[in-house]
Specification:
By secondary structure, this protein is an alpha/beta fold. It has 2 domains: 247 residues, Dihydropteroate synthase-like (TIM Barrel), CATH 3.20.20; 102 residues, Sulfite Reductase Hemoprotein, domain 1 (2-Layer Sandwich). The protein is built from 12 helices and 15 strands. The chain has an 8-stranded parallel β-sheet. A 5-stranded mixed β-sheet has the order 11-12-13-14-15. Helix 1 runs parallel beside helix 9, helix 2 runs parallel beside helix 3 and helix 10 crosses helix 12. The relative contact order is 0.09.
Amino acid sequence: MSIRPYRDIMRRKSRQIMVGNIPVGGDAPITVQSMTNTLTTDVKATVEQIHALEEAGADIVRVSCPDEGSTKALKEIIDNVTVPIVADIHFHYRRGIEAAEAGAACLRINPGNIGSPERVREVVQAAKDHNCSMRIGVNAGSLEKHLLEKYGEPCPDAMVESALEHARILEDNDFHEFKISVKASDVFLAVAAYQGLADACDYPLHVGITEAGGLRAGTVKSSIGMGMLLWSGIGDTIRVSLSADPVEEIKVGFDILKSLDLRHRGVRIISCPSCARQAYNVIQTVETLEKRLDHISTPMSLSIIGCVVNGPGEAKETDIGLTGGGNGNHMVYLNGMSDHKIDDEQIIDHIVELVEAKAAELEAENQNS
């Protein structure tokens, strides 16, 4: 479908880095990532979780490396997955070196927190030697003591200053392959910090609202904060932080991007909330279709509308549409045009068949183009 001018989002111009084989920043698509919550030393469980994240569409996955046992396990984990792995490092410089040597595509690290300038140089050298990028990760909950004393409390200026101080350490070591995040659980604080950082540098930005909460509340909170930033063109890679299955973070991340027409993966379902006019059970139909179509990664649109008030108009804007009709006869639209009718018993299986066929058609077109 055509994209109207009012939907255009002018993305902030940033330099591009590589996380493994995935470009981040510049004109690259906004990537979606999550983090494992298994014990890293449990290689089998961690690999299984990463495979689930890969299947959900994750571009990048972060793994915590708090001790030597974790960095030893990291190599075996990396050897058994395809998605680039970011090693989450805090305080101990040796873990950063070990993770780079194990094949991590990126280190999540704050260079000012890992010791002397010599130790920082060792970590930077390991990153250079093993083609490993970095992420500077500033968090409102762990700002440096001197900044809290200067500003009195976590605030946007303090977070931006922290990020730039860490960036300067890497720049002084002639290292520029890094992205930056300035996360907070407070939406206003996080958004203001990212806006300030976006103006202060051209490094790619990893965007997220940290510790956002459970699946429902965290999704709403993340959508508000990240949506504001992405709509204004800020953000090169995103992580939705939920107290939920990490796979849900990937799903929500893609839903946020799809809602802003920034990236498309899988079936985007447009559906009505249902009312007394509905000619079939819309809520149950959508719930079932979401599960049945979860395996489709090809971008496409599907409208499921319960009656003829808005149904035909929505169907004209989607690849496949269903509008409720009288006497259990419902109209199916293909490519915006009314095509044929189906009855109640056919709805689920028939729509699934149509979506799968359309996905195969689109994939063939992409391969031939």
